[in-house]
Design brief:
Distance between the termini: 48 Å
Number of helices: 15
Structural class: alpha/beta
Number of domains: 2
Radius of gyration: 20 Å
Shape: globular
Number of strands: 13
Largest sheet: 7 strands, mixed
CATH architecture of the largest domain: 3-Layer(aba) Sandwich
Order of helices and strands: HHEHHHEHEHEHEHEEHEHHHEEHEEEH
Bound molecules: 4'-deoxy-4'-aminopyridoxal-5'-phosphate, glutamine
CATH superfamily of the largest domain: Type I PLP-dependent aspartate aminotransferase-like (Major domain)
């Protein structure tokens, strides 16, 4: 059997959700919303299922969704994309990541990864034959050291995998860091694979800057988005990839043998959603902002040190020097009945890590129940 997967543990999301069920815990671990997602989008999917086309859609995605993705990024990020040659639909951002890494990496090519990182990255890089080079993001702001990043680039760097806004950090990169990374990508022969699934969840400060929109980077980036995050529909697994035609030609070859296509009713519902009025997108942020402040104040009152975060629907607490997030989460789910994610699971080396991630995209009652349980437990 292949060693990458035979040697890989079950993902922390599945493990913690299973423990949450077993202990009847409030699940603030795996990132998924309490909210069922916009009704008009779900209705559109239901109509498509009952009366629409339910056979294979075109391999690159329904034209209506590819047009809608290009129009959406023009509207929100001022980007110009040719929907026919530069946009492809995938089965979630996860498939887009797998496609990009399989299409770009040759065995022995180096891939720069920032740690902590979303847990799918490393196994996918390794399975594609890539050699990881890690760059550390440091709390409280989860920034890289420019000198360390420069040192990570070599003649063999083929890919830089950049997640902004960052899961698990809950932060968005500052313009200076994005520009520095952009200039290093430009100087090297590498392609940046930009995981921007959290692009619509930046709550304060400067807006999200897609790396692909910086000068000279249009042909050097693969931009990845996910309807699961934009519409609180994580189970749908509808993603999109944007890249220049030369890169897209090869990405689409990987996609044609990975999944080939994505359910057509979900695609047309997402196309509809991307065109909804601004009220939807600002409403999403308002809701998340409120939940974030409720969870942050509850955790602080329970005596935990909450790290600043201005994006995603995750908040982190720092248990301080010597703290072990894995042990904390295991005890909290069993003894307090609240599940969270130990951020150590997002690092390549198993070492105690004092950071713990909580998902706050939950109803007020859910958050209040979790806070009550944690406060009682800590008292
Ligand atoms: N990348 C990041 C950074 C994520 O947080 C997630 C999901 N939480 C994904 C990729 C996967 O997205 P999808 O469910 O669309 O595959
Ligand atoms: N992306 C979600 C998170 O970070 C979980 C994804 C999954 O369960 N595979 O929590």
């Amino acid at each position: 059997m292949n060693r990458v997967f035979s040697g890989t543990k079950t993902t922390v999301f599945e493990t913690m959700s299973r423990l949450a069920l077993m202990h009847d815990a409030v699940n603030l671990g795996q990132g998924f919303p309490d909210d069922p997602g916009p009704e008009e989008v779900r209705r559109k999917a239901a109509e498509g299922l009952l009366s629409g086309w339910n056979q294979y859609p075109p391999m690159l995605g329904l034209p209506e969704l590819r047009r809608a993705v290009a129009a959406h990024y023009r509207r929100f990020q001022g980007m110009e994309l040719d929907w026919e040659s530069e946009v492809m639909v995938t089965s979630g951002a996860t498939e887009a990541l797998a496609c990009a890494l399989m299409a770009l990496l040759e065995p022995g090519d180096e891939a720069i990864l920032f740690e902590p990182m979303y847990d799918a990255y490393l196994p996918l890089v390794l399975r594609a034959g890539g050699v990881p080079r890690f760059v550390r993001l440091r709390t409280p702001e989860w920034r890289f050291d420019p000198a360390e990043l420069r040192r990570a680039f070599s003649r063999r760097t083929k890919v830089v995998l950049f997640n902004d806004p960052l899961n698990p950090g809950g932060c968005a990169a500052c313009r200076g860091d994005v520009e520095l990374l952009g200039s290093l990508v430009r100087e090297s022969g590498a392609v940046a694979v930009c995981d921007e699934v959290w692009e619509h969840t930046v709550f304060e400060g400067p807006a999200h800057v897609p790396l692909i929109s910086l000068p000279g980077l249009h042909d050097r980036c693969v931009k990845i988005g996910s309807a699961g995050k934009i519409f609180s529909l994580t189970g749908w697994k509808v993603g999109f990839v944007c890249a220049c035609p030369e890169l897209m030609r090869v990405l689409s070859k990987a996609h044609q043998y990975l999944t080939f296509a994505t359910p057509p009713n979900l695609q047309s519902a997402v196309a509809h959603g991307l065109g909804m009025g601004d009220f939807y997108f600002s409403g999403l942020k308002d809701r998340l902002r409120r939940s974030r402040s409720r969870l942050a104040s509850g955790l602080t009152e329970a005596g935990l040190k909450v790290l600043p975060g201005r994006a995603t629907y995750f908040l982190n607490v720092d248990l301080g020097p010597g703290g072990d997030g894995a042990e904390f989460c295991e005890r909290m789910v069993k003894e307090a009945g609240v599940a969270a994610i130990p951020v150590g699971a997002f690092h390549p080396e198993p070492a105690p890590c004092p950071i713990v991630r909580f998902c706050f995209d939950k109803r007020q009652e859910t958050l209040d129940k979790a806070i009550r349980r944690i406060s009682r437990w800590r008292a």
